[in-house]
Design goal:
alpha/beta, 8-stranded parallel sheet, 3-stranded parallel sheet, elongated
Length: 789
């Protein structure tokens, strides 16, 4: 424990994408010192004011820090006894350099924007010039971090392949030779400078390989692991290996934010505290010969130059404070927690709780209002109510892609959808604007715009499109409905309900003249219908003179408006309840029979319910239930024999079709729809748009800017194409089977209703990636993808 508490505690400032405004950064530096840090590891990337040929590296989205501002950062840090260690990537993660066409010829391979070709002298000169300019502006710094992590695709370039073909050459030696060249190059001008590098590219090397390379006297490895349950034994083993290779001076690297997922918005303190507790266990387990220099608490702002933003700094301050206090106290003790609460003044160690507790505390930490706003907004955006609105019964039932294409909608439901969508839209837009204004006080406009595009746009855009399409449909139908019309509709519905109650309770049906004219059919499709209530209604009708009565059950089309595959058991249960009703009514009621309804639409303007072939198992089971008085084994056997599928549930026919003589009319269509529905509803396909690669490297921000990390572009494309081709093939099979039984318009509507909502986003994704790659001047083949993988 003492080895970490006494050593350097560096707060990592990752400035790519969300560089704090300089006055805010000054306040943060003071806060870091107050919380117990004694150093800063600053990764400027494109926020450094490079000059000359390197000026092209400066950020175009927002101005880099000026030379005067960088000096001011150091002055404040030094006034608080904070050492500054600049971090400049020198091999991998050079996306901010190699993305420029000017330096495109220095890439290891053309479509990997992060890795430098180690064989080009211009590449080495470029890196050394970057280091020189950074160090000239940090004259008091005695340590420099040269990065060198995650050197993807090393060895895949043509020059590397030639080099590797020489006996005795290897990827390890190729990596080491470049690092040694860089280290010696910087040492020529800064002989006393301590050099630190990330250790991950060394992990698979033997101690002898490292020792014999000449690296030992040049660098100090920084071992990084951000996992809350990191493998302590493995880390200790690595550190001992580095020691045996001669690398006695070592560093640890933990994380206080930016390592949960690529798109995490609100930091979890406990996750990161757990990571630090594990590092304390590592420190207490290593041998005395290892000279542990300290720990860098990393706070990544992006996973790489082309990924989305991770949590903004104000969302990570609770975690940072807690992690620093954990290091100082050796555990996250009550005393440590108390210090965090007092330092930040929010009454909690978890940033996610500040909204709930802010009323009872003197919230005061820098950026607190922004943190509070983001926590509130994130809760809105991730609410189940808002997330599921597009899949609500009204939207899926009365405004599917089929309706949008045909520009039709049931006006009774149109304004209900509109009204709810407007409430969500206005609520979120209002909070998003508040958050944006707070963000602009601390960050440049480009950061605020990107954050909104990343987190808010994916939720609001579908609502905005929905409202636009409903407006178009209503105009197309010649309708103009106001909010008052919705209220009138609600009132009229209530009035109709009350009128029916009056008719059935206060008005004498027998005196109306209705008795000699009609026979009432009582319908209830619920699998747990209220038997007593139905009997009471039937007895009332009898007392009014309506002796001849009918029942109406359901074998399909009554589960939800958009159900695709019928559940037999649900409908059998409904019929069993009707049998209970029939056995409970008085002899005077002349029950004529029962209608087994199989609705195809809820109304003329709703979507299609289950097609008939999907309801035949249910129909057969319900009829046999009525005949046998229950769904007995004998009744089930009759269903199985009649349909020849070995099951009473249509959802099981795919599983059982190989073992039976499937023969019922429409069986192939039913089997195809069951298979296709399973694909469309699969968790893997449903969550693909929210996968780490899509959300992390191709958000609405990337689509708008037409940029993507090509290393991930084709991985996304390849998987999307697999999903697309698989579903399209099955959908075409289903369509052809459907055309044998139904008109073409039915088949087209069914595909639009069920398949299009899944495939359209995939098609748009592929189109946008292709556009982005073209915009970036890149052309990647499938073989390139295999190399990446």
């Amino acid at each position: 424990m003492d080895r970490l508490s006494r050593g350097k505690k560096l707060v990592h400032l990752d400035l790519k994408g969300a560089p704090p405004r300089i006055d805010y950064l000054h306040k943060l530096i003071h806060l870091f010192a107050d919380l117990g840090a004694n150093g800063l590891l600053i990764e400027y990337e494109d926020m450094f004011p490079y000059e000359g040929e390197l000026k092209i590296l400066q950020s175009k989205a927002h101005p880099p820090y000026s030379r005067e501002e960088i000096i001011s950062i150091q002055d404040i840090a030094h006034s608080r006894n904070l050492e500054i260690i600049p971090l400049v990537q020198t091999f991998g993660h050079l996306e901010f350099v190699l993305k420029h066409s000017t330096f495109g010829n220095l890439r290891e391979i053309s479509h990997c924007l992060g890795t430098l070709n180690p064989h080009r002298k211009q590449g080495g000169a470029l890196v050394l010039e970057m280091l020189k300019q950074v160090m000239e502006l940090h004259p008091k710094s005695t340590t420099l971090h040269i990065g060198a992590d995650e050197v993807y695709m090393l060895g895949e370039g043509e020059e590397s392949k030639v080099w590797l073909s020489t006996p005795g050459h290897s990827i390890h030696k190729l990596f080491l030779s470049h690092i040694i060249t860089v280290a010696k190059g910087i040492r020529e001008n800064y002989s006393n400078l301590n050099l630190v590098m990330w250790d991950d590219m060394l992990r698979s090397m033997t101690a002898d390989t490292i020792k014999e390379s000449g690296l030992v006297e040049l660098v100090q490895p920084m071992l990084w692991d951000y996992n809350p349950v990191l493998d302590v034994g493995n880390i200790i083993m690595l550190m001992e290996k580095y020691k045996s290779a001669g690398l006695l001076h070592q560093w640890a690297a933990s994380s206080f934010k930016g390592s949960t997922t690529v798109h995490t918005c609100v930091t979890s303190t406990q996750r990161h505290v757990d990571n630090h507790i594990q590092w304390l266990n590592v420190a207490s387990g290593i041998s005395p010969g290892i000279k542990l220099q300290g720990i860098a608490l990393t706070g990544w702002q992006r996973y790489d130059h082309l990924s989305v933003l991770c949590e903004l700094l104000p969302l990570g301050l609770h975690s940072l404070a807690s992690c620093l206090c954990t290091l100082v106290h050796g555990s996250f003790t009550p005393e440590a927690q108390k210090k965090v609460v007092e330092a930040l003044g929010t009454g909690t160690t978890e940033v996610g709780d500040i909204v709930r507790l802010s009323q009872d505390s003197s919230c005061s930490f820098t950026g607190m209002k922004l943190a509070e706003g983001i926590v509130q907004l994130t809760a809105m955006l991730e609410s189940e109510e808002l997330r599921d609105f597009q899949n609500s019964v009204y939207v899926k039932g009365w405004f599917s892609p089929y309706h949008r294409q045909r520009k039709i909608i049931n006006p009774l439901f149109a304004e209900q959808i509109q009204k709810q969508a407007k409430i969500y839209l206005e609520t979120v837009e209002l909070k998003a604007e508040e958050v944006k204004q707070e963000m602009l006080l601390l960050y440049p406009e480009s950061t605020a715009e990107e954050w909104i595009l990343q987190h808010v746009t994916p939720v609001l855009k579908p609502l905005q499109d929905l409202l636009k399409d409903i407006h178009t449909a209503l105009e197309h139908m010649g309708l103009n409905i106001t909010d008052s019309a919705v209220q009138n509709y609600m009132l009229s519905t209530t009035c109709i309900t009350r009128l029916l109650l009056c008719i059935t309770n206060d008005f004498t049906i027998s005196e109306s003249g209705l008795v000699e004219l009609v026979q009432p059919m009582l319908w209830d499709y619920n699998p747990v219908l209220d038997v007593g209530n139905i009997i009471m209604l039937m007895e009332k009708y009898k007392s009014a003179g309506l002796l001849h009565q009918w029942a109406a059950s359901s074998f399909k089309g009554s589960t939800t408006v958009h159900t695709c595959v019928t559940s037999t058991q649900r409908h059998v249960d409904n019929h069993i309840q009707w049998l209970n009703v029939a056995s409970g009514i008085s002899p005077g009621i002349k029950l004529q029979g029962i209608a087994l309804t199989g609705w195809q639409r809820y109304d003329h303007l709703s979507v299609l319910c289950e097609l008939l072939p999907l309801g035949l198992h249910s129909l057969a089971s319900c009829l046999c239930t009525l005949v046998h008085g229950s769904f007995t084994p004998e009744a089930q056997k009759k269903v199985v024999e009649a349909l020849g599928t070995g099951t009473t549930e249509v959802g099981d026919i795919v599983r059982l079709s190989q073992d039976s003589s499937c023969s019922f009319t429409g069986m192939k269509l039913a089997e195809g729809i069951v298979q296709l529905t399973a694909m469309l509803e699969s968790e893997e396909l449903r969550d693909f748009q929210n996968s780490v690669y899509v959300k992390g490297w191709f958000s609405p921000y990337h689509r708008q800017r037409k940029i993507i990390n090509p290393l991930f572009a084709e991985q996304i494309q390849k998987q999307a194409k697999i999903y697309l081709e698989t579903v399209e093939l099955k959908a075409e099979e289903v369509k052809q089977e459907m055309l044998l039984l139904y008109p073409e318009s039915t088949a087209e509507e069914w595909i639009l209703q069920h398949v299009t909502p899944v495939l359209k986003p995939l098609q748009d994704l592929l189109k946008d990636i292709h556009t982005a790659l073209e915009h970036m001047g890149l052309n990647i083949t499938d073989s390139a993808v295999q190399n990446v993988q």
